[in-house]
Amino acid sequence: MTPQAAGPPVHVRAAGLAKSFGPVRALRRADLTVTAGRISALVGENGAGKSTLMQLISGDLSPDAGALDVGVRVGLVRQQLSTVDELSLLENIVFGAEDAAGTGAWPGRLLGGISWSAHKEGVRDLMARTGIVVPLAKPAAEVPVGVRQRVDILSALYRGARCLLLDEPTTYLTPREVDTLFEVMRDLAAGGMSVVFISHRLREVVQHCDEVNVLRRGESVLHLPAAPFELGRIGRAMTGGDDAAGGEATGAARPAGAPPGVPVLDVGGRLSVRAGEIVGIAGVSGNGQNELLDTIAGLQRSAAHLPLTIDGREVSRWSTRARRAAGLRFIPESVKESGSAPAASITDNVISAVPPPGLRGRLGLLRRGKADQLARSLVERARVVASSTRQPASELSGGNLQRVAVARELGDGARILLAHEPTRGVDFAGVALIHAQLREFTSRGGAVLLVTSDVDELLALSDRVHVIDRGRLGRDYERDELTLGRLGELLGGLGHDVAAARHEEVP
Ligand SMILES: Nc1ncnc2c1ncn2[C@@H]1O[C@H](COP(=O)(O)OP(=O)(O)OP(=O)(O)O)[C@@H](O)[C@H]1O
């Protein structure tokens, strides 16, 4: 790296970077300068090329063209979690995901002569310094996604990264955790580190970052070197001034529709969802949300042996398949991990969930043309950026994969939707689109059980809200009874600080 005449050292300088994957031009001309002591935001629509740029800087990919100068050790914390289920959190932090995945480059070097107790000390010290604390002895499989993400951050720091690349780190975090993360980032930056922060939550960006870089369709289109930042300007740069797809902000109130009807889903009399209704579940991630949804979906047995009914019929002993056939659909917390088949094409991912009648010909053989047609119309409706429906799901950007999963689960035959973080990783135009899809689904008599850590989303969509804490569901509150402040009081005892959530308009 060329020494600077004055000012803080530049850690990364990228100019005119291009990268294609076969026919897909993920990056055409990307520029980014990352400076010590600063938190730089990188924003752009789903598929704009943000993750690709991060992978070029981290060295996971090499550019086809352009100049890239990286002067310090870089730690990339990816969108998709890289913890290994069977390993303890300590092991995950110490080995680091890349090496656990097989390069074997550094553990041997670092572990030579160093004991596990020394690592434990080192990691404990790191946790104390950064305030990012995780239960070290627990296996990764037993902790919620939010904790596993913190493990990835600790891992990068433990490996001596001076430049942290955080690809959507806040999607798993509650508002208070987001604030804590930024306090940590601020401290790290004050200590001479640099941070690149990717997020679709533009409010976080303008509030916490020192500079903003916008990518649109693989090109750097805007660099704002200093606050104050104007949300509208950033939004317009992201979309090219085309706000048509954006629609309303996430904070919009639910339009008045037909009054919700009969309960279609009931869990032991404690939780019920009626036709035409969205019932929200609020709580700190890891308080039983996964268990609740997995039990309803038939992926695990109810520990409390609560009766579960769909349309008044007891279904506790039904298979997942039978539940799907009854119209139950599920968007899991991490679509990348458990809601998609990465090697299969977009078409196969779309039709995998109980192929609708009409897709099979005589002898039960799949009619490919029809299946592709169905996938194409769905991809179009969900505004997915993909070169073709034959593309494997693994090649889709995170937000685009999420759009595919939502559209698939809302497809033919859906009557009850379990939606866990339905807009995770989706840009603001996509969030508005998915919210509109959920409302449209309920206006046709669909029932939605919504679990989200985004309090704005919870209040924007839910007709009623239950709070969940340590596996227990509290009473429900009607939407009219709840303001952001009231929800904050309810969650206050659970370590939330929703007062930190804001209601500014997103363009
Ligand atoms: N390995 C790959 N093979 C083929 N295409 C790919 C591959 N990786 C990414 N792409 C494509 O490159 C484009 C940019 O993807 P990238 O993941 O960088 O976008 P992103 O801005 O991070 O999106 P998101 O906000 O949805 O995470 C997308 O069209 C994506 O489908």
From TrEMBL:
Residues 241-261 are annotated as: Disordered. Pfam families: ABC_tran. Keywords: ATP-binding, Nucleotide-binding, Repeat, Sugar transport, Transport. Transmembrane segments: none annotated. This is Simple sugar transport system ATP-binding protein. Residues 241-256 have a biased composition (Low complexity). The keyword Transport applies. One of its GO terms (molecular function) is ATP hydrolysis activity. It comes from the Bacteria. The keyword NAD does not apply. InterPro entries: AAA+_ATPase (IPR003593), ABC_carbohydrate_import_ATPase (IPR050107), ABC_transporter-like_ATP-bd (IPR003439), ABC_transporter-like_CS (IPR017871), P-loop_NTPase (IPR027417). Residues 12-242, 247-495 form the ABC transporter domain.
